């Protein structure tokens, strides 16, 4: 069984490209080693993240993320045991302030990222987030 965890949080201040790269690098390294997959999307001043993997490592990772000063008001939206992963890998998408958007809209970025997600509600959580943050 795996633990699936989805949370939303608020950026302390807009992230610059170096910080995006740093989060991406640390996450790829740690999540890869721990067998954690999922998605991180930054839109407007919010993060939405899905973490999935063995419960103990997901809990440990979430605890570490929760103490990160780059964001606050971390609110868990979903926490459940599941027999299947929704993402084959770990990925990240950014829109605001210089973060590797290549002219694509947040909706387009998120649409590409949620491609592998079969769970309709989970997918809607991410596409809805993109819509709300694009309108904000
Ligand atoms: C919104 C957000 C999401 C993050 N997601 C992850 C993640 O999925 N995995 C991870 O290891 N670190 C993540 N981090 C970074 C951690 O908070 C922490 O800086 C990092 O795990 C430290 O790794 P290190 O000790 O290997 O340098 C995230 C940080 C933020 C602000």
Automatic annotation (TrEMBL):
**Record SUPFAM superfamilies:** Acylphosphatase/BLUF domain-like
What residues does the BLUF domain cover? Answer: 2-93
Q: Name one GO molecular function term.
A: blue light photoreceptor activity
Q: Which InterPro entries match?
A: Acylphosphatase-like_dom_sf, BLUF_domain
- Which Pfam families does the record cross-reference, listed alphabetically? BLUF
Q: Which domain of life is it from?
A: Bacteria
Gene3D superfamilies (alphabetical): 3.30.70.100
Name of the protein this chain belongs to: BLUF domain-containing protein
What organism is listed for this UniProt entry? Sphingomonas ginkgonis
